[in-house]
Amino acid sequence: MKKWTREERYQKLEDIPDIDIKNLEKIVLNCSFRQKFHIQPKTGLLNDPNGFSYFNGKYHLFYQWFPLGSVHGLKYWYHVSSLDLVNWDQDGIGIYPGDKNDSHGAYSGSGIVHNNKLYLIYTGNIRDYNWIRDSKQCLAIMDKESNIIKQNKPVIDSIPEGYTEHFRDPKIFKKDDLYYCFIGAQRNNLTGCIVYYQSKNLINWNLVGELNTSLNKFGYMWECPDYFELDNKGIVIFSPQGIKESGDLFNNIYQSGYLIGDKVDFSNRSFSHGSFIELDRGFDFYAPQTMEDNKGNRILIGWMGLPDINYPTDKNGWANCLTLPRILEIRNNKIIQRPIDELYKLQKSNLNISDSLINQEKSYDGFNGIEYNLKCKFKNIIGKSVGVKLRTSLIEETMIYYDIIDRKVVFDRSKSGEKFAIEYGEVRKCFMDGLEIEFNIFVDRSSVEIFINNGQEVFTSRIFPSKKSDGIIFFTKGQSSLEADIYQY
Ligand code: FRU
């Protein structure tokens, strides 16, 4: 596969001949792993969702984009917008990097509505001649016609004393008439944390200091922080790097999760909270961002991918997609995540079955495909396990099951097609209990998102099976009743 030189990775899209881009687009279009109902880049590499907001009657979302190939290079913000969070318009590049304050990338950031405009605050990534990194927090303002103007002067111009050059991903929110900006940071002692600023006008920012959590040594860098209040709780989301795996926990290369506790006390920076909980139990989930929709719901979208992992589509000139939007709720001091209701509006045909299975594997007419939403519920379970195999053929299958003896939900992609990232294992598990289980599964051409028991846990993963692997097989070791519905996309 192509080896990218530093010069090639930092070329601007604007400098590449049209014919080269057209050729790349052709290669990408020929890839059988292109998704049907997920946000994906038309060429190149997508990573974090950015600037997720509701403005002027529409949802706006941007993503980190390196257009020229599936490597992390010069990052642009690509803009998509939607009336319903399901059907997205492609609005083209929102923020172009390459100026003095973002010479080596318009890195991640967030959006907030102010004075009838959308303020987009992002990290300008800068490298000097010796490849030493610096970062500035920059502002771009979008008007109602979606014209985006970058402001010349960074709003946060320097990195405060005590922190390294890993200082990025500003998340802006408003609380009691003041704006706050959370930034993902690395202390000089190489531990991760969140530093925050305060502002009255989104232009002049004052450093407040570090958010005081009880996680003083928890990885070497915290990326993409987020903060919101829900159900009278304070929730801090971030993506820490450098956490050791521990049993079923923290098995991916980098993590992404949250702390839940009392609302942050912004007068003294204190946040009292419980332990760090992973947002997703699957293989490919990172750098999520949330926003409040026009009904006051908290909605989350993540990157269905991870840094420093090679994906099978790299050779086809593109990589990664975003997750489906999820609505967040709090139950028993935990975040519950459900696919947003609008997703069901896309659904076409609907088939359902009701059966009871005793120590068997079973398929049903019409229950197959490569782009669908499958809901299945196993009740009155007696025995060892119940589950479903997706994207099956004679040699391939992707399996989710509930092991009622071990009290675990298990996701297995060891036979899911083209292999990748296997050094991080091929099975993920998490705790579950009860005598019934419901899987709400969204299968696209190269991904699965599995919501367990109405959003108690989610497993999000890329898979790369053959197009012909389109079977669905339900199974029980022991006995159980089964109800299942399938909607094709
Ligand atoms: C997270 C991240 C961010 C950074 C961006 C660059 O995936 O590394 O910290 O702003 O990606 O694309």
Short synopsis of the structure:
This protein has helices at 6-9, 18-29; strands at 44-55, 58-66, 76-82, 88-95, 106-114, 117-127, 133-142, 148-150, 163-175, 178-187, 192-199, 205-210, 221-230, 233-241, 257-261, 277-278, 286-292, 298-303, 318-319, 326-331, 334-339, 350-358, 361-362, 372-392, 397-403, 408-415, 427-431, 437-444, 447-452, 457-462, 471-488. The protein has 489 residues and is mostly beta strands. It is globular.
The radius of gyration over CA amounts to 22 Å
Q: For the record, what is the CATH homologous superfamily label of the largest domain? A: Glycosyl hydrolase domain, family 43
CATH class of the largest domain: Mainly Beta
Number of domains: 2
Unreliable sequence segments: none
Q: Please state the average pLDDT score.
A: 97
Q: What fraction of the residues are assigned to beta strands by DSSP?
A: over 45%
**Anisotropy-based shape:** globular
**Small molecules held by this entry:** beta-D-fructofuranose
User: How many angstroms separate the termini?
Assistant: 33 Å
Q: Count the strands?
A: 31
CATH architecture of the largest domain: 5 Propeller
User: Major beta sheet, specifics?
Assistant: 10 strands, antiparallel
**What is the count of helical runs?**
2
Q: What fold name goes in the CATH topology slot of the largest domain?
A: Tachylectin-2, Chain A
Structural class: mainly beta
Instruction: Estimate the helix proportion, in percent.
Output: under 10%
